[in-house]
Fold MFS transporter.
Amino acid sequence: MHKERLHFAWLILIGLCVSVGLGKAALNNSAGLFLSPVSQDLNVGVGSLTIYLSVSSIVTLLFLPFGGKLLSKYSARLVLFFAIVFQAGAFALFGLMNSIWGWYLLAIPLAIGGVFITVIGGPVLIERWFSKGKGLALGILSAIGGLLGVFAQPIIGALISQFGWRNAYFITGLGVLIIVAPIILLLIRNSPKDKNTKAYGDTSTDIDPHKQIQNIEGISYTTAKKTPAFFLLVLFFFIITAISSFTMHVPTYLVNHGQKVSIAGAMMSALMVGVFVGSLVFGYLTDKIGAKKVGLLAMILGLIATILLIAMPDFIVVVAVALFLFGVFTSSIGTIAPAMASSLFGSKDYSQIYSTSSIGLALASIVALPAYGFIYDISGSYTTGLIIIILLFVVNIIAIILAFKNKEKLVKEGYWNSKKKGDLNG
């Protein structure tokens, strides 16, 4: 018997883990480390400087639908190569800036590159390359990204302290570009037909790659975008991101309830462990029992976590358990959200459907974070915000149930068919 070779899909996943992981951990998530030193050196307010993050979020929101079209039309390898040049290049160029206008302008290529590297590239390629094990692949991608963040943050902090913020921008941006660009060129391929093979786990007898493309199942984008299920998916994305944004306020919430800052910081480690565990567990369960059941499970765990935070914020053990569960829920952004899009609408026009519905993610990141802050400023407490979060969990549970009911209706009406040319109007 000959030994079966490693399927190329796993090499794709390795390439994505490095590319997406470093794009998120080293470039996106390290932004906060630079705010204080940059604002002090340039003598500008932190608030004025952070406007560039809002610019980046708005560009992401506007570019997402266009990004999905580019990924469906052009080679993913070339698109992701230019994306990392944009994202990492803009990050490195921050080190040359002497005015906050530089951050505002560079936020545009930073966000355009980030749309592909950190938002849609991973889920779209996993959808193309994995016929089975999609959930596990998404879980591994999400977990590795979180793990890289654990190492990247202290390293970048040390670079700022040792070499100054300008050199830290250079080293980080160019370092990511030098690592990621060759990996994208070597390991990333657009689809299985580029390697004259089938997706991992595809048991179909059709070996002609052109016929495989024709037989991809699902609901077309023109049909999907007009359905209640699509709007409910956007709502689902918005709510899970809005709720997850509260993690930025957790340390303040704990300190307000008598915990020391050091304890609050340690408690955040429980949340990070939850994200790591949740990514792998949700990814595995999605393959076994489906995105709908796992999505409902995630909402219930998040609901329990929020109730515990409201009820017993003074008990360290309870808080640790609550934050672990909250972290498990938070991992649903990288695992359940893309799996939900696939489960509801299939693979046919996945890149456009996922990228457009991801507008919910981008919109929530703009709105939710300051909203919790305003609620705290007005009421002097985060309790109102947490009660709103409980209501959002309930809304999301209802949204999941209704979205899959609408899918059943669409399937019965014949729209889940790669050969159907009409849309809802035809």
Summary: Residues 221-412 form a domain with the Growth Hormone; Chain: A; fold (CATH 1.20.1250.20).
